[in-house]
Design goal:
With 127 residues, the chain is α+β, with helices and mostly antiparallel strands. The protein is 25% helix and 24% strand. It contains two helices and four strands, in the order αββββα. The strands form two sheets. It has a two-stranded antiparallel ribbon. A two-stranded antiparallel ribbon has the order 3-4. The longest helix is centred in the N-terminal third of the chain and has 18 residues, at 14-31.
Length: 127
């Protein structure tokens, strides 16, 4: 019996192209700095063969399954409060600051505003 089929030639080369595309996804996932680069990725290739009643023709169904590593995320803390002047809810990421304390960024922003219009800014009113 002589079987004259090559994986590269199946489906006019489309199957081989799809495999290469999935391999590219795997290597991009490995090089992504937001994933755990030491964990395993996988590509499973399944070829199912279904013969007809006479067994003179066979339908081949390829299946590709790629398993990648998810993006690693870090939790953050958000402070939620109410602006007593407007009554609106405000939320800001917590940066190890005491509630109500001004940060250097707040002061720098205020100084930038002061130089724009020439008016003195009340830093105690800035939040």
């Amino acid at each position: 019996m002589a079987i004259k089929m090559k994986l590269d030639d199946l489906q006019g080369g489309v199957l081989s192209e799809k495999i290469n595309c999935e391999l590219e996804k795997i290597f991009e996932n490995i090089k992504d700095p937001n994933t755990d680069q030491t964990k395993v990725r996988s590509l499973s290739i399944s070829l199912k063969f279904k013969p007809n009643k006479n067994a003179d023709m066979v339908e081949m169904v390829p299946t590709l399954k790629t398993t990648l590593q998810p993006v690693v995320t870090e939790p953050t803390t958000i402070i939620v409060d109410r602006d007593f002047n407007t009554g609106k809810i405000i939320a800001k990421e917590y940066n190890n600051q005491i509630k109500g304390q001004l940060s250097m960024e707040d002061i720098e922003e205020s100084e930038g505003e002061e130089t724009k219009n020439g008016n003195v800014i009340d830093l105690m009113a800035t939040k």
